[in-house]
Amino acid sequence: xxxxIAVVEDEPLLQQNYSMxxxxxxxxxxxxxxxxxxxxxxxxRLPDLVLLDIGLGNEQEAGFEICRGLRQKSTQLPIxxxxxxxxxxxxxxxxxLGADDYLTKDISLPHLLARISALFRRLDSLQTAPNASxxxxxxxxxxxxxxxxxxWNGQLVDLTVSEFWIVNALVSRPxxxxxxxxxxxxxKAVVDDSTITSHIKRIRQKFQRIDKEFDSIETVYGMGYxxxxx
Length: 230
What we know:
alpha/beta, Rossmann fold, Arc Repressor Mutant, subunit A, 2 domains, five-stranded parallel β-sheet, globular, OmpR/PhoB-type_DNA-bd, Proteobacterial dedicated sortase system response regulator, two-component regulatory system, transcription
């Protein structure tokens, strides 16, 4: 059965573009253009994934409110913010509300489809036994490239897909600096410097919730970031 994706977007042209691309990829698509319309539909049936804009009509934070409500209904429903807002505050707010990813609207449709596929793959893999060959350990870090998941000292770190790819890129060569362009390529999306900075800050915070002494991600000023193996 085809996965059902809800697109919550108030711009007709974007509604059409996303719908056509998703349907061509084999997904079932439903479109909602307002907070009220989306919330009414979600009260009756949750989709398999939600693409969510933040500003809807005259409601500048409608998407945040929808995300908060969806997380109360389901902790595993994949939610992707797809918005023109790219400030640190917006990104951090979206991720704190429980979104799995935060993308800006300049992302290409092939990259958007790849991100959606990755989220579905992660969700499916979490329901099956882990593949030992996909697990890579670096010190206290355990990274599962099949489940797109990360553990620190045996505890799961709740990373978004974007954050996972950044950690994966840094860990691929511990001690070597990855510049912002390389991390952008790892994220598989067009993002600016401030977005990478926000992701790094958020990643550190998530590791530090588990281990207050976590300091494996080092900022190399003027160059980028590197993973220092303990």
